[in-house]
Amino acid sequence: MRIIFFGTSGFAVPSLERVAASHEVVQCVTQPDRPQGRGLAPRPSPVKRTAQALGVPVTQPERLRAADLAEAEIGVVAAYGQLLRPEVLRRPARGCVGVHPSLLPKYRGAAPMAWAILEGERETGVTIFQLTESLDAGPILFQTRTSIGPDEDQEALAARLAREGADALGHALEQIAAGTATPVAQDDALATYAGKFTKAQGRLNWAEPADAVVRLVRALVPWPGAYTTTNGLMLKVLRARVAHPDGAQGAPGTVVRASAGELEVAAGSGSVRLMDVQPAGKRRMIMTEFLAGHPLKPGDRFGHDA
Questions:
Q1: Sequence-ordered list of residues with C-beta below 8 angstroms from that of 194, at least 6 positions apart, any chain
Q2: Which CATH class is domain 199-293?
Q3: What pTM did the predictor assign?
Q4: What CATH code would you report for 2-190?
Q5: 254-280 confidence digits (pLDDT tens)
């Protein structure tokens, strides 16, 4: 089939590669190059770099119109980063299908993996569905399920679901091409919404149970990142585990242990072991490195300064 691919982030790359291996990708639509890095030089998206390597024509409009699109049988949308207007959805002869990393109708929206981790879900998956004017609400074509690892963060989960999503997409496109696809309407009564996180939502609340603190850390890697403060220092927390799940270990935010490269902090119930952190303006550090330059002792506090 002749396909237009819409995608931007690294999550979409395996899907683009899968589609290009089996179909004719006549056009790749991705976001314009954006300033990135310390120099803020414009850089192409992962999807643009992949499309160029595959020899696929690339289009990068600030505001996409149907007139910008080539003739195609179907559009495939994966982590494009922009809602498609109705006239764009109707441009491909058979409409558009989306790759969404959740078990729709749960977690519609921009941050489904983060919310699944934050809510303590043990299972998630990828849904291939027909795009409609309503956000992530179209009929389901194919769905796969997978467990969420107890220590898996959003970044690791996204890498895994990107691969599984590509396989699911390949299966769905085969059914569409063969005329055997059987769309199933979503039950809107079961729908939940997974909106984007803000930086402010990343502030750790040490009065929460230890498991909730760790889930927030896992959910917000790599963006926007969970953080806390101590002695006027803002500290991004990139990896953490529950040290003790229950019981009072001390006042919330109090350092319980700070020795031998281990930093344990009391939560509302139980305690959390901080493992990888990044002080403001510095690089990522394991705890041994951090404690060498920022000595802490039992009784010191986290989260009680600005």
A1: 102, 107, 108, 109, 110, 111, 112, 114, 115, 116
A2: alpha beta
A3: 0.95
A4: 3.40.50.170
A5: 999 998 889 999 999 999 999 999 999
